[in-house]
Amino acid sequence: METFVIGLSIASILFMVALGLAIIYGTMSVINLAHGEMVMIGAYTTVLATKHLGFNIYLCLPLAFVVTATFGLIIERTVVRRLYGRLLDTLLATWGIALILQQLIRIHFGLGLFGIEIEGLGSDLQNVPVPAELQQAIRLFGANIPVYRAFVFAAALALGAVTWLLMFRTRFGSQLRAVSVARNTAAACGINDKRVNMLAFAYGSGLAGIAGVLVSGFKTVSPDMGTPYVVDAFLVVVAGGVGHLLGTFASAGILGEVQSFVATWANDVYGRTVLFAVVIFILLFKPQGLFVTKSR
Amino acid sequence: MTYRTASIIAYVVFFAVVLALPLVLNSFWTNRVAIYLVYSICAIGISMSWGYAGILSLGQGLFFGMGAYMLAMSLTLAVPENNPVPQLMLLNMEPNAVRDLCCVTTGSFLWIPFRSIAVGMIAGIVVPCILAAGIGYVMFKRRTTGVYVSIITLAFALIGQMLIVNNQPLTGGFNGLADLALLEIAGFEFDPYGPSAYYAVAFTLIAVILLARYMLTGRIGQVLKAIREDEARARYLGYDVENYKLFIFCVSAGVAGLAGMLFTLTSEFATPSLMATSLSISMVIWAATGGRASLLGACIGALIVNFVGSLASESATFQPVWPIILGLLFVFVVLFMPNGIAGIFKAFIERSGNAGKAEGFAETKLSAREV
Question: Do B139 and A284 touch (CB under 8 A)?
Answer without folding.
Answer: yes
